UniProtKB/TrEMBL annotation:
One of its GO terms (cellular component) is cytosolic tRNA wobble base thiouridylase complex. This is Cytoplasmic tRNA 2-thiolation protein 1. GO terms for biological process: protein urmylation; tRNA wobble position uridine thiolation. PANTHER family: ATPASES OF THE PP SUPERFAMILY-RELATED, CYTOPLASMIC TRNA 2-THIOLATION PROTEIN 1. The keyword Thylakoid does not apply. Residues 318-346 have a biased composition (Basic and acidic residues). The gene is NCS6. HAMAP family: CTU1.
C-alpha cells in the first residue's frame, strides 16, 4: 500500500474526496480540523469569549460540528462558551431517537444542552400537524416552525450566534435548486457563510408576551467548505456517536433531484462541488438589488458601488454591464409603453455571410429577476421598495408582514381543529 502523502510513514487509509490525496487516518483528521479552523479564522466567525449555540440534531453534520468546535476551542484558546441547542419537532420514531444521541454527545463533550419543542412553542407537534394536513406540504410547516424555534431557543439561552452543520454538498444543492427555479436573488443568502436572522427574546415564562426585546441572531456555517463524505469519514475515525435515519415525513422533494445530480457530478469530477459553490457566490454578486447595487457582503457592495457599478473597473466589467443592461431593459420597456422607443439594430453580416468581428467583452447579458405580477401587468417596472421589518401583531416575532408566517400557518391549523389549550395563533408563532 502507498504511504500517507502527509506524514510519509503511516500507510494511506483514505483517498480524500476533496483533494484526491492519499492519507492516513490521523493525518486526515488533523487536516480536516485545520481546514475548518482556517475557515473560521479567515472569515472571522467568532469573537473571543462569544457565547455560541450549536444547532444539534443528532445527525452526522451537527455531531461533527460540535466535536470539531470543542476541539478547536480548546486547542486555539478561543474561549468560546459553547452550548447545544436542539429542536424537538415531536416526531415519534425519529426525533425522539436522534435526541438521545444529542444527549449522549452533550455528556461526552461536556456541553450543556437546551431542547425546545414545537409543542412548547406552538401547541402542535409535527405528528399532530401531519395528522391534520397529511404528508404533502408538511415540510413547509416544519421549515417555518424550525427556523423560528432556533431563534427563540437562542433567545432563551441569551445567545446571539447560532452555528449549523450545513456542508459544501448542502450549499451546492441549494445553488442548483435556485438556478433550476430561476431564483437568482436567493443565491446571496444561500452562499453566504454568515447570515443574520431577526429574533425575539423570550420572557422567563417562555412566551413572547410581556416585555420582549429584539435582537439579531447571527447564523454561520463553519462546515460550508467541507465535503459530506469527509464529514462521514471524520465521524468514523473519531468514533463519534450520531443518528443517521432520514425523517419519516420527508417526501420526495425537489432537493432530492439536486442531490442526485450533485452526487453524479462528484463521481465524474470531485471538484465540482466546490466549483458550484464558488459559482453561486460569484453569480450572487452579479444580481442587482432594487437599487441596482450588487448583492453580497457589505464590504463588497461598498467597493463595487464606488467603482461605478457591480464590477471593479469603473462600470466596464461584465458585472457592471449586467446592472447597466437591467437599467436599459427597464428604460426600453418604459419607452415602448410611452411610444418613444428607438430601433435597435444588430451588427450587419459581412458579404461572406459571417458576422463582423466584435469585442466580446462588451456583450450585454442581462440577469432578469422576478417582478411582481401587478407591476408586470400594469407595465410598470419600478424597483420594488425594500421590505421593512416590523413586529408580528400576534406573537411579537420580527416580521416584514403584519402577521408572521408561523402565525399564518398556525391559524389555519387551529381553525381546522380548534384547540382549548392554546390561543389562536399559538404561543410561539
Amino acid at each position: 500500500m502507498a504511504p500517507c502523502e502527509i506524514c510519509t510513514t503511516n500507510r494511506a487509509q483514505i483517498l480524500r474526496p476533496k483533494t484526491r490525496s492519499r492519507v492516513c487516518g490521523p493525518c486526515f483528521t488533523a487536516a480536516f480540523e485545520a481546514e475548518v479552523a482556517e475557515t473560521i479564522t479567515t472569515t472571522h466567525l467568532f469573537q473571543p469569549g462569544e457565547r455560541v449555540a450549536i444547532g444539534a440534531s443528532g445527525g452526522k453534520d451537527s455531531t461533527v460540528l460540535a466535536s470539531v468546535l470543542q476541539t478547536l476551542n480548546i486547542r486555539h484558546g478561543w474561549k468560546l462558551d459553547l452550548v447545544l441547542l436542539s429542536i424537538d419537532e415531536g416526531i415519534q420514531g425519529y426525533r425522539d431517537h436522534s435526541l438521545e444521541a444529542v444527549k449522549r454527545n452533550s455528556a461526552d463533550l461536556g456541553l450543556p444542552l437546551k431542547i425546545v419543542s414545537y409543542e412548547e412553542l406552538y401547541g402542535w407537534s409535527m405528528d399532530q400537524v401531519v395528522a391534520q394536513i397529511g404528508k404533502k406540504g408538511n415540510c413547509t410547516y416544519c421549515g417555518v416552525f424550525r427556523r423560528q424555534a432556533l431563534d427563540r431557543g437562542a433567545a432563551m439561552l441569551g445567545v446571539g450566534h447560532v452555528v449549523t452543520g450545513h456542508n459544501a454538498d448542502d450549499v451546492a444543492e441549494t445553488v442548483l435548486m435556485n438556478l433550476l427555479r430561476g431564483d437568482l436573488p436567493r443565491l446571496s443568502r444561500a452562499t453566504s457563510i454568515v447570515t443574520s436572522t431577526p429574533s425575539a427574546s423570550v420572557n422567563k415564562d417562555g412566551g413572547p408576551n410581556g416585555a420582549v426585546s429584539f435582537t439579531n441572531v447571527k447564523r454561520s456555517k463553519p462546515l460550508m467548505y467541507a465535503y459530506e463524505k469527509e464529514i462521514v469519514l471524520y465521524a468514523h475515525h473519531k468514533k463519534l456517536d450520531y443518528f443517521s435515519t432520514e425523517c419519516i415525513y420527508s417526501p420526495e422533494a425537489f432537493r432530492g433531484s439536486a442531490r442526485t445530480l450533485i452526487k453524479n457530478l462528484e463521481r465524474i469530477r470531485p471538484e465540482s462541488i466546490l466549483d458550484i459553490v464558488q459559482s453561486g457566490m460569484d453569480m450572487a454578486k452579479l444580481v442587482p438589488d432594487t437599487d441596482d447595487a450588487c448583492k453580497g457582503s457589505a464590504e463588497t457592495a461598498q467597493t463595487e458601488e464606488s467603482a461605478g457599478g457591480c464590477g471593479n473597473a469603473n462600470g466596464t466589467s461584465k458585472e457592471g454591464e449586467m446592472a447597466a443592461m437591467e437599467r436599459k431593459l427597464r428604460e426600453n420597456e418604459q419607452a415602448e409603453q410611452d411610444g418613444t422607443e428607438h430601433e435597435v439594430r444588430l451588427p450587419a453580416k459581412a458579404a461572406n455571410g459571417q458576422r463582423h468581428d466584435r469585442d466580446t467583452t462588451n456583450l450585454d447579458i442581462p440577469i432578469r429577476t422576478k417582478e411582481r405580477r401587478g407591476n408586470r401587468k400594469a407595465g410598470r417596472h419600478a424597483a420594488t421598495p425594500a421590505q421593512k421589518l416590523g413586529q408580528c401583531e400576534r406573537c411579537g416575532y420580527l416580521s416584514s408582514q403584519a402577521v408572521c408566517k408561523a402565525c399564518v400557518l398556525l391559524e389555519g391549523l387551529n381553525k381546522a381543529r380548534p384547540r382549548t389549550d392554546i390561543e389562536v395563533g399559538g404561543s410561539g408563532g
